[in-house]
Amino acid sequence: MKITIFGCGYVGLVTGACLADVGHEVICVDVNENTVSALKAGQVPIYEPGLERLILDNLAAGRLNFTTDAPEAVKFGLLQFIAVGTPSDEDGSADLKYVLKVAETIGQHMNEYKIIVDKSTVPVGTAEKVERAVADELEKRGVAFDFDVCSNPEFLKEGAAIEDFSRGSRIIVGTESERVREAMRQCYGPYNRQRDKLMFMGVRSAELTKYAANALLATKISFINEVANLAEHLGAEIEEVRHGIGSDPRIGYSFIYPGCGYGGSCFPKDVRALANTADEIGQPAHIIKAVERVNDRQKNKLFEKLSEAFDGQLAGKTIALWGLAFKPGTDDMREAPSRALMEALWGAGAQVQAFDPEASNECRRLYGERDDLVLAEQREDTLEGAHALVICTEWKAFRTVDFSALSKTLLEPIIVDGRNLFHPDTVKAAGLAYYAIGRGDSVRSVQA
Ligand code: UDX
Q1: pLDDT tens for residues 249-296?
Q2: Which superkingdom (predicted)?
Q3: What percent of the chain stands above pLDDT 90?
Q4: What is the end-to-end Cα distance of the chain in Å, rounded?
Q5: Ligand 1 centroid, distance to 114 Cα (angstroms)
Q6: CA nearest to 58, candidates 82, 15, 23
Q7: Are residues 125 and 266 in the same domain?
């Protein structure tokens, strides 16, 4: 099949590379010339395990190409995937200007039947807007080509995107057209062999499914974080509670890990956008709004715990910080809890010495050179002259720590663990105070 993909960002590249890898002919379009020329030379601008290999192999095989020539790209594919960004507007709603610009481009240059596939996460009703934008352009040209618009949301986790694309739990397609169903069966056929994962539904249902899935996952996280807070004040250990509830298959163990809050490009943005849609239609979404409020509060927890540990005296203190990325396996710092912490620490006059296996350059790009930030090459380098250690991201390499060495190096024996990586007894045995989420020294002693 011939496939065009608009947007050489995270979703566009993963989709393009995975579809080319099973034999489709794919052309990826972007307006950014630097991005396109780098990709043509095999340089991949984002870090995602396995993606570079896939791009290089399929470039070499001639099945994957990159271009800035939108008119040619429109003519190329039967399928026209829209995988451009939908940033949050100031009010939290998704900004559709890039999506609609692509729709216009398609309308301006199409010369035969096309299927337009909304891959970007877009609010319910967007497919209809895309349809109108294309139809308007055709009308301006005075031509009448047939086309369909369908919704095909992605469910890719950063760090596991290739795996999710090839072995995800479902492929959702919102359409009423049999012609589209047939084309999508052909497009995804190679990834749909073991069992039929294709789910066809109405366009609006597909659009809402994406938001509902992310909002429910975010709800699970905010829920457990709220219970962790209760555990701290009720004298319970959240990790025991997590095991206790997760064993019920109706609840399950996934996405109930307490922590310093969710971040990334999807959950915060999608939760906000769905709450916004709900307000717009006069049906305020109370749970969804609360999920965001709880998460904002949770991102401040590590700073609160440090303040408590230092009796509010953080000015002049140096804090070692392990983990800048919003989760392991990525260099992405969008809405990362580490940022809320660093900014609060700087506001309180403290210094940060940070280490992350992948995200140092991203951190430098975001914050530039500043006197109160040192980006270390090794995690041990962050500890020199540090008063306490805080962990924001659960990178595997952080799971092994020599606590007795650590208690000698730190100026004050304090660990604040935003990901509950260790057993409180092990840390305390080395003479360290261990503040974690809903456990350890965070738990208040409660009078009977
Ligand atoms: C998410 C969805 O999982 C994916 O399906 C969707 O398409 C995009 O959004 P991603 O943002 O890459 O993917 O990350 P994910 O692994 O889901 O984690 C999101 C955030 O939740 C991270 O900050 C993570 O640390 C946090 N999290 C996750 C928890 O705090 N506790 C958990 O139990 C699980």
Answers
A1: 999 999 999 999 999 989 999 999 999 999 999 999 999 999 999 999
A2: Bacteria
A3: 94
A4: 69
A5: 34
A6: 23
A7: no
Spatial distance between the Cα atoms of 81 and 289, rounded to a whole number of angstroms: 31
DSSP 94: B
User: How far away, in angstroms, is 221 Cα from ligand 1 center?
Assistant: 9
- How far away, in angstroms, is 12 Cα from ligand 1 center? 19
Question: What domain count does the chain have?
Answer: 2
Q: Are residues 161 and 42 in the same domain?
A: yes
Q: Residues 186, 281: one domain?
A: no
By annotation, the residues acting in catalysis are: 266
Would 445 be classed as within a structural domain?
no
Assess if residue 176 is contained within a domain: yes
365 and 398 fall within a common domain: yes
Instruction: Supply the residue whose CA is at minimum distance from atom 28 of ligand 1.
Output: 255
Residue 46, pLDDT score: 85
Share of the chain above pLDDT 70, in %: 100
Nearest CA, atom 22, ligand 1: 262
H or E element that contains 351: strand 351-355
Question: Which of 362, 344, 342 shows the shortest CA–CA distance to 352?
Answer: 342
> How does pLDDT run across 308-346, given as a tens digit for each residue?
999 999 999 999 999 999 999 888 999 999 999 999 999
Query: Does residue 78 share a domain with residue 27?
Result: yes
Cβ count near 448 (within 10 Å): 3
- Using the 3D structure, point to which of 166, 201, 236 is the last residue of a domain: 201
Indicate whether 222 and 196 sit together in one domain.
Answer: no
Q: What CATH number is associated with residue 73?
A: 3.40.50.720
Report how far apart, in Å, the C-alpha atoms of 102 and of each of 32, 97, 169, 432 are.
14, 9, 29, 56
Output the ligand 1 site: residues, CB below 6 A.
Answer: 154-158, 214, 217, 221, 255-257, 259, 262-264, 266-267, 326-327
pTM metric for this prediction: 0.93
- Judgement on whether residues 281 and 403 belong to the same structural domain of the protein: yes
At residue 108, the pLDDT reads 98
In the listed set 175, 201, 227, which residue is the last one of a domain according to the structure? 201
| Structural domain boundaries enclosing 66 | 2-201
d(CA 26, CA 20): 6
Task: Tell which atom from ligand 1 comes closest to the C-alpha of 336.
Answer: 23
154 C-alpha vs ligand 1 centroid, how far in Å? 14
pLDDT band at 447 (very low <50, low <70, confident <90, very high): low
Statement to judge: residues 236 and 197 lie in one domain: no
State the average pLDDT for the chain: 96
Mean pLDDT of 228-233: 97
213: in domain? no
Interstrand relation of 64-67 and 79-82 (parallel, antiparallel or unpaired): unpaired
